[in-house]
Amino acid sequence: MATYVRIEQSEFDEWMQAHDFFCLNEDQVRQELVYVKTWHDETYMIKVFSSIVPGSGTGRAVGKDAIRVVLFVLVAGEYHPFWKAKRVHRVQGWKSNLIHRISDAEIMGLYGQTQYNCPVCESPLVGRDGRRGPFIGCTNWSVTRCGYTRDMRKR
Ligand SMILES: [Zn+2]
Questions:
Q1: pTM of the prediction?
Q2: 3-class secondary structure for the chain?
Q3: 4 Cα to the center of ligand 1, angstroms
């Protein structure tokens, strides 16, 4: 079992800023610092839920203390969560684990971005995990049930 480490708020903040994220202050009501990065005309957004309690630098209770990385996509004017990376535990090596999770989320967005928009409804496309491996799907699925998909392995 890896050893739990204390992550200072200032250390985390500096690291996130160095990776082009900014702190989303309005989310502090959720009792943890949340960081955001958007790209491709703000179509894609990654949120990092730090698990760091604002002002103290201490972690939340064990069990709620992992750092989470979520990819959101803008559909019909609203951000929808589309993909969650594996959790990053607050242990030695968290920085390299976190950069891998962030890049996983970026790849999920980039796959969609490189495939242009959905040929059926013109919404953004995004990478998703499926039972038979990763695929590209229409982000409008949760809104209009547009079912356009394309296998990522046949590119
Ligand atoms: Zn579509």
A1: 0.79
A2: CCCECCCCHHHHHHHHHHCCCEECHHHHHHCCCEEEEEECCCCEEEEEECCECCCCCCECCCCCCCEEEEEEEEECCEEEEEEECCCECCECCHHHHHHHHHHHHHHHHHHHHHCCECCCCCCEEEEEEECCEEEEEECCHHHHCCCCEEECCCC
A3: 43
